[in-house]
Hints:
The complex is a heterodimer of chains A (about 200) and B (about 210).
Chain A: H1 2-15, H2 22-27, H3 29-50, H4 52-55, H5 63-68, H6 75-87, H7 91-99, H8 101-124, H9 127-150, H10 161-200
Helix pairs in contact in A: 1-3, 3-8, 3-10, 6-8, 6-9, 7-8, 9-10
Chain B: H1 2-25, H2 34-44, E1 47-48, E2 53-56, E3 61-63, H3 64-69, E4 74-80, H4 87-104, E5 111-117, H5 125-134, E6 142-147, H6 153-160, E7 164-167, E8 171-174, E9 178-181, E10 186-191, H7 196-210
Parallel strand pairs in B: 4-5, 5-6
Antiparallel strand pairs in B: 1-10, 2-3, 2-6, 4-9, 7-8, 9-10
Amino acid sequence: MIKALAAVLTLAALLLSLPPGRALIEQSMVWHMLVQMPLLVLAGFCASMAWPRVLGSGLRNGLGSGLSRFNRYGLTGFMLAQCITAYWMIPAMVDRAVVLPSADAFKLLGLWLSGVALRQSFLQAPLAVQLFFVGYGLPMMAWLGFYMANTNLRLCNAYSLESQLRAGQGLVLLAIALGLVWAASVREQLLPAARSTLGQQ
Amino acid sequence: MRGLLASFCACLLVLGLGLAALFHATEGGTAYTTETLRRSAVARAPVAVPNFLVVDATGQQQPLRQLLQQDQRVWIVDFVYTRCVTLCLALGTIFQQLQQQIVDQGLQQQVGLLSISFDPESDRPPALADYAKRMRMQEGVWRLVSLQQPADRRRLLDSFGIMVVPAPLGEFEHNAALHLVTADGQLVQILDLAAGEQALKAAAALAALSAP
């Protein structure tokens, strides 16, 4: 089930970079930054769940568990995802991905991998480390969105100001939504601990 | 403990590579938009303007380089399309002011204004003539041309680094700016639309430099 989901999400994101789907991301910043990019990260995230032997740390002796030695507390994975997502939030790089197929291919691979890294890191990171990266990454996204929605300056030569405005609003909403999803997951993560504390009393 | 050290080193390595990539992409943190990158690239190394055949309001055709060269003036170039009713009207106003300043300061021999249409299919000589009249262009100060071959449009825009995108109501949006082009066809500087006076000064200085 999760394998099918990961495959479908990856395919959907790839199709947006190939004609005729490409017209959507060429014309609309919303399709590019709020549909394709999050889809790639989500696809990587799901792929890591679907193939733990290669992309996860679930099984012994797999490539994943070998790599997880370098990802204690999820530090390296979070840092990688942070760098990749920050890079693809630079307006000039968004333009490049529209104009240059090689940059676009780099974007597809990078964001997908950042999804894999995020999933791995959330598995291994204590809440404090999660809070540190989530608390840095999401406000960065919201701040960029807020700026994009409120400036009269066209930040991307490839998109109209109108498109940028809507993408900016969307980025703010996405940051809020992701924050809520994480908050809900915190509750899940804390529940077992709370139960065991209750059991001891 | 050894495991933690490995993770720590890996994390620092990723951070270092990440910062290097970001540093490289933004030219050391100075340029976050394509427009800034385009301007600094031109400032570092001038770009030769392509030599396409252009046509003016009277229907006269000539190669762009020849037009640039004929009076040995430095040109302030912008890109327009005459159907425009919103954004490039502002651009037109800026050029009108520049035209007035050129006349007031007696710079007609040194600095010229050139508007190039990026909509060659609908901007034929009659449309150009109409626009020139609307903008009160003064012959000898401000020239308006369109491409003779619409097929050249893409390469012309690419050489200047202009991206035209469709906007609501059938309009276009593009990275409008003031482009300084020398008589020998070199794009040497790109300035903000708001920096009209600065552009005029820079053009006059360039003209003085190249004067015999």
